[in-house]
Specification:
single chain; globular; mainly beta
């Protein structure tokens, strides 16, 4: 495989699946095969006063990708990924977990036009969120669905400009019946020390819990993100997003409009050690039966790199939450974690 195409194809493959470091298993005769994965375990205590701290699997996935040269400017690509989950069932810890196939796709990668893939995939919106928390920030805009079974995805990145768009087709093949459908994407650019982008999302017939009740909703929103490297040691991340949830029940006027803001800063003390602190704010305006909802969080963490693909970290945070004008009890949260990837 020509190096120019390989250099383009590998990042495109990782963007379509799990963005990890990868191990090359085979590269000859126009065929390249790579394996990547991650394991991340945490000792975790969230903000809820009703839960104890516990040891949990935060991230565990494995993906196999391949690029096969079709011509000097075109590769056929494919990926097959698995995730390992299920720490608890009804609050009781499980000795074993589930293995789910969350990625199974094929497509084409072009140096000029980007990568287009078809099949079961992680949605582009899963990349949204640039704040520097591990677990204790509350800035993440909830776009409800982050995976799809019938996804058609396009990604392009030339170094300075990048973009992507996709559709997860109607999940119900019955004629005249509307199932879940998602359209989302991203547009961004890199300019010297600045990386700015905006994600957009439009989902229909999504299952979502709002204020302790389950609803079928439509959700539309966006998230704007900016990363600015002040120098080699300091950097700042800003994010602002909006999302609107509308209850799909007949004659319902229930709606929740949410504004989200996050700011965080990082300091690279040396090659191995880094620190970060951040503040998040969420303001939800309820209509037709949904109560107003507000929350803030303040967190700080430290990370130590054991090696480029292995790190340990600690984080602590505090939060305030209010629903319908009533303060909610919260605890101080903390996380101790370790991640190893390849």
């Amino acid at each position: 495989m020509k190096k120019t195409i390989l250099a383009m194809a590998v990042p495109a493959l990782l963007a379509a699946g799990a963005a990890q470091a990868s191990v090359n298993l085979y590269d000859a005769d126009g065929v390249s095969v790579d394996l990547s994965g991650a394991a991340e375990i945490q000792y975790y205590k969230g903000y809820s006063k009703t839960e104890d701290s516990y040891l949990r699997i935060d991230d565990a996935d494995l993906i196999l990708t391949t690029a096969i040269q079709v011509s000097d400017s075109l590769d056929a690509v494919a990926g097959m990924g698995f995730k390992y989950e299920n720490n608890f069932n009804n609050g009781v810890a499980n000795a074993t977990g589930n293995v789910d196939n969350d990625e199974l796709w094929v497509g084409f990668a072009s140096a000029d036009f980007g990568t287009i893939t078809f099949g079961r995939q992680i949605l582009i919106i899963d990349d949204a969120g640039n704040q520097k928390d591990y677990e204790l920030g509350t800035e993440q805009t909830n776009f409800v669905q982050y995976e799809g079974a019938q996804v058609i995805k396009w990604r392009f990145d030339n170094g300075a400009f990048y973009a992507g768009a996709e559709i997860d087709l109607d999940s119900d093949k019955t004629k005249g019946v509307d199932g879940t459908q998602v359209i989302d994407g991203v547009i961004g650019g890199r300019f010297e020390s600045v990386d700015a982008r905006v994600y957009f999302y439009d989902g229909e017939n999504l299952s979502e819990d709002i204020q302790s009740a389950s609803y079928v909703v439509d959700a539309q929103g966006y998230n704007f993100e900016l990363d600015y490297a002040i120098n080699d040691a300091f950097d700042v991340a800003l994010a602002y997003g909006q999302i609107e949830y509308k209850d799909k029940a007949a004659a319902s006027t229930r709606q929740m409009d949410v504004d989200v803001f996050g700011i965080s800063g990082g300091y690279q003390a040396d090659e191995k050690t880094s620190f970060a602190v951040g503040y998040d704010w969420i303001d939800g305006k309820g209509k037709g039966g949904f109560a107003n909802q507000e929350s803030t969080s303040l967190y700080a963490n430290v990370t130590y790199k054991l090696q480029s693909n292995a790190k340990v970290y600690a984080e602590v945070g505090v939060a305030d939450k209010e629903i319908g004008g009533v303060d909610q009890d919260t605890d101080t949260g903390y996380v101790l974690g370790m991640e190893v990837k390849f």
